[in-house]
User: What shape does this take?
Amino acid sequence: KLTRLIDGMKERGLFALDYTVEETLPARASFRERRGNCLSFTVLFVMLAREAGLDVRYQIVDVPPTWSDQAELLAIGRHVDALVDIPHGSQFVVDFNGEEFQDKYPHRLVSDEQAIALFYNNLGAEALLRKDYTTAFLQLRTAIDRDPQLAAAWVNLGMLYWRIGRGTLAEGAYRQALTFDPRNGSALTNLTSL
Assistant: This one.
């Protein structure tokens, strides 16, 4: 089934998608527009794989932190791919990024709820970069509702509060992120800056 699904996706051009780290799209939009980021494409693949009856889960690959001059913050990379369990104990990773993350960095399975929270966190971060603070707040709140322990969403919420001049709330959000991930580089750096 996996081979047939991947072959079918190749034939329909779904493995020749326009990969961009800057935009998170829902699966339908990624399918229609043939573009998106790792999370967009992984959600699309997971939906198709489950429809085909495959046992597939999301996993996070912990890539190194990067500095964004545009956002003036340290971002902890979160790359998402799919892990397919194949009968008789084998596993297969489906990764839409051209770089080979699979063997270089630690990876861990996440629940569907955590993957959905990451999706909303991405939307919130993208709105934050556009300075659409109302949308950013709503998306980040949804991410936190889905996974209250998602440190990245708390960090982004802290950045939002900092940008609108609410330093006390920003500090609280950064500290909340650190309760769930005491070594979170973004939370530590932004809290120090604050």
Summary: Strands lie at 18-19, 35-36, 55-61, 66-68, 73-75, 79-86, 90-94, 107-110.
